[in-house]
Amino acid sequence: MGCAQTGNFEGKRITEIQFDPAPAPLSKQDLARMLLLQKDAPYHADQVAATIDSLYASGRFEDIQVDAEPSADGVSVRFITKLNFFTGHIDITGKVNNPPDRGNLIGATQLNLGTKYRDSELTAAETNLKKLLEADGLYEAAFQTQVTRDTRTQTVNFTFHMQPGKRAKYTFPVLNGNPMLSDQTILRATSWRIPVIHWWRQVTQVKTRAGVEGIEKKYQKQDRLTTSVKLDSLDYDATTRRVKPMLTINAGPKVEITALEAKISKGRLKKYVPVYNEGAVDRDLLVEGARNLRDYFQGQGYYDVTVDFRQLPPQKDQLTIEYTIAKGTRYKLASVQIQGNKYFPNDDLRDRMFLRSSSLIDRHGRYSEEFRKRDEEAIGNLYRSNGFQSVKVTSEVHSNFNGVSTNIGVTYKVDEGPQWFVDHLAVNGITRLSKKAAEAAKAQLSSAAGQPYSLVNVAEDRNAILTAYYSHGFPAAEFTYKVQPAEKPNHVDLTYEVNEGGQEFVRGVLISGLHITRPSLVDKKMRIHAGDELAPTEISAVQRDLYNLDVFAKVNATVQNPDGDEQYKYVLYDLDEANRYAMNIGIGAEIAQFGGTATALNSPGGSTGFSPRVSFDLSRLNFLGTGDTVSLRTRVSNLEQRVAIDYRQPRFLGSDRRTITYTVLYDNARDVLTFASRRQEASVNVAQKLSKSMTAQLGFAYRRVSVSDVVIPTLLVPQLEQPVRIGILTGNLVQDRRDNPVDAHRGIYNTIDFGLASSIFGSQRDFGRILLKNATYTPIGRDIVLARQTQFGAILPYHPPAGISAEESVPLPERFFAGGSDSNRGFPYNQAGPRDIGEPAAVGAPATQPTGFPLGGNALFFNTFELRFPLLGSNIGGVVFHDMGNVFTSVGAITLRSTQRDLQDFDYMVHAVGFGIRYKTPVGPVRVDLAYSINPPSYLGFSGTVLQLLSCNPNLPPSQLPAVCTPVQQSVSHFQFSFSIGQAF
Predict the structure, then answer these.
(1) Where a domain ends, among 163, 182, 208?
(2) In CA terms, which of 40, 55, 172, 406 is 20 to 30 Å from 254?
(3) Higher pLDDT, 802 or 32
(4) What is the pTM of this model?
């Protein structure tokens, strides 16, 4: 940096100012601010030097020289510059063998978006890439680097063209040190070779790391907690493409940790003494273990427990650590009292306390010395945050409480002291912030005249003021405060001083990384434009919006040249497009009571069955670069075969909260074993997010439904078997305030579903349909949840076709079928409600044979209570439940009556109680439920085959009918068993 040639031109008129290369890489505003020389003004050498310093501080130049030459009647000034470049987009092309994936490769370059770039960084980036590829077994990988520079924006972009080559495989490792285990045992622990077939696996970083950890775990299982396993190197043989790991292993002695004077399981010792998790033995970990054991026993009521330890000298390959635990007397925390508090009521303080007195749920209470100290601190912090600067909180433990030797009480004593208030607040230095922004920032201040004075409030005010400045392009704003005593006692005058610093603006927005995605999709989310205030909060908000498009795997947002002294800076958004295809394969099963089959009718009330289920979903994301999604969804089980094609268009009609989905569906189901249903459907559905917890949907579906394999003689008539076209307008409103939709512990969940099938929509059947659900989740204590769900549904047919009753006009697949693990567990799957009772005898003819199979209904009502509680450890929970409800013939038939009047009466409430087990998994709890039905329905059913049923000719006199045609009284079993995934509701 300096002058190439200036000569003696002091005071001469400047005739021309040039930049080489041209134009100058600064905004017009910054160039005018930094360039102290003016055309037609006198030339001064000190202004030249100051201009060079100012330009260099901008960060845009690597080197600056000035060449001054005489012109016709003055001096011509030329700035000869070498530009700085800043890291831009990094692209990985070619075949990428995952691992490593593109994200890992880009991260390995350690080239940071928007920062100043030096050529030496490329050499380091290529070295890091090579190391990463070799760590994942790609020793023969090669890549070519392409560097492109944009002088207009001073951005340098990189493209790495990958040729990964073949991945190497492991071979038998070399073991050094003192392993004390056989080579084969160590090899099995690494999992580097496939058992039985003895094929070596391919090398990856994850497998290498897992292999070393597997060795460590092998030693830990033998209680060798001081074992050290070190991977010295991975030696690659190019001729065989094999990698030989070089390991140094020192086993160390076996570590035995025992508890003296108190009984505690080995599992609890491993849980509370961290040497097992850390795989090391040192004094700090042993001290932490003693503290954890003390807290555990105090939590069990042994409040005077003392825990100490000693480490015995190693003997015969064994290191013994003994924890001496003197439990003392087991107490009950009978009382927790608070005294001296006037400003805060007891309930407000108890909400912040750890100590809990004994109760039915916790008969010894919750106490420990650490908890007591935490409570003192929590109460004190609450008072200090409300102006009580000199508050003192102490506690006292009372033994022999109320004359009972095993009872203790704890009393917290609060010496509040005087409360301090703000008498006057002055905020100085806010001059360049807009009036609206300044008023908004002041409105958020916690300190004000007449309000309590506390350092907590001052800290909150500092954050509010600085956030306001950062949000309006003042990155260097500073905040200080001053406190002075006021005239009134216990009052202060508070003064906030703001040093605004310089304001920065957006020079332009540079977007990189778009290949498939249409730029217009990104532009719609871009709320930042040239000339706007440079607000980090707004930059982050746009970044979040781009992530929410669900088309980018990564969105990097930053400011180019962040340390440069520029007022106008580029904002960079570097986008990494996500994989365009997503595939999910699911395998599951349901074990429950299912009904009979189409060939065997001897168990219409259900028998134990197994239903395996396979699903396959394939989605094409970001279709045509628009952010839309096309999906193929399939499900195959012995109860249902389904295939659906969806086209999902988010941000419908320009709203981020609105989505439209078009669906074509084919479904063939035998989940109601009275018949098989086939459905071909086309539908459109619009979903609108009304609020954080509320979603509404409106849709229209046109479908063709048909039934086959009908096993009930009274339904074997063409009018009921023929396909029916249904045109139905549907709506749905969901309110979800659960803390965890998969396994809720608190909150509410409400749904309203309605539909209207009408000839106006081209439907051959007219009916209205509504289904309401309300669920609540109420925590009881810390770990118990009372869950409740109520369901009500109604189908209201109208304008039935000639010759069919209103109830029969609703096609079988459109009726309500329920029972099983998601409604009333006292029924087998879809076995609730009305059943086939045959046709009454006509004059001169016998009655039609009843089968007892479910027919579905036009109304339903269910109510379920569940008490969910921990059972074994943290992953296994228990549930006791009560289910009540049924499917009814019609809305008018709904009753709370719990007795069945006769074998033809199914409109009554069925009750069931039971017990279930829940095992937590990442996809939701696996559940097993055993239910006892208190009042299951009885009915007349058929006990033969379909052929035998058809042989029961109604035209024959009863004396000539086979014995199998005589109806048999049957009933739904009292005991029902189900296995599935997810909570019941």
Answers:
(1) 163
(2) 172
(3) 32
(4) 0.81
